[in-house]
């Protein structure tokens, strides 16, 4: 799936994706966009979205052609077990990672004729489980990385202390060799531990922040018609000109 430059409107931040018909790209949904008519059919048990609420301020909105856009094309399993698309995760990261505030809502805009409430309930649960599992894993990895960095720095300080104490001992070949070995080793351990603590864990922190925000976001599906999408794109084009 190729990508193009995302365009923002209103308070909503988002990235749109087109699916299997060969027209792929990005687009944003305005925060005040009006969803299309409600999908037909009964809501699945456990579904917490049976109406079309207005987009929350700061919501991330994604345009989809079908539900397949969310998942990997190479995974044949049902939606409840299927792996997420790397393109979908990458676009969500681009929309979320530089934001300091929380993401109140992850909104998927799906064509009216393609909506299925049973599938939406399954996908909503799959997304929540995915984001929460990765957030928990990254939180553990980040904690271990921080404590590991502190342990290395503490070990370096201990080595430097031993090296300083050796200076008080009588001058011998063994004392001189140990001092020459321990002092730079201590400095290196302290520097390496603090470097990992303040810089080495940055990527883990960013990844954890992304998955934590997505795990807390309310997953919402809304309907839109092809005419509404065309009007929105035309409005964006006119404003850009």
Q: Uncertain runs with pLDDT below 50, 5 residues or more?
A: 1-51
Characterize the largest beta sheet: strand count, sense, and whether it forms a barrel: 4 strands, parallel
- Number of DSSP strand runs: 4
Strand residue content: 5-15%
From the N-terminal CA to the C-terminal CA, the straight-line distance is: 27 Å
Structural class: alpha/beta
Mass-distribution shape:
elongated
Strand order of the largest sheet: 1-2-3-4
The helix/strand order is EEHEHHHEH
- Any idea how many domains? 2
Radius of gyration: 26 Å
Average pLDDT taken over every residue:
76
**What is the helical fraction, as a range of percent?**
40-55%
Count of DSSP H/I helices:
5
Would you mind describing this structure in some detail?
The protein has helices at residues 86-96, 117-166, 173-200, 202-216, 226-240; strands at residues 13-14, 60-63, 105-111, 218-224. It has 241 residues and is an alpha/beta fold. It has a four-stranded parallel β-sheet with strand order 1-2-3-4. The model is unreliable at 1-51 (pLDDT under 50).
Summarize the SSE layout with pairings.
Layout lengths: L12 E2 L45 E4 L22 H11 L8 E7 L5 H50 L6 H28 L1 H15 L1 E7 L1 H15 L1
Parallel strand pairs: 1-2, 2-3, 3-4
Helix pairs in contact: 2-3, 2-4
Summarize the structure.
Helix content is 49%, strand content 8%.
Please name the defining characteristics of this protein.
disordered N terminus; 241 residues; 4-stranded parallel sheet; alpha/beta
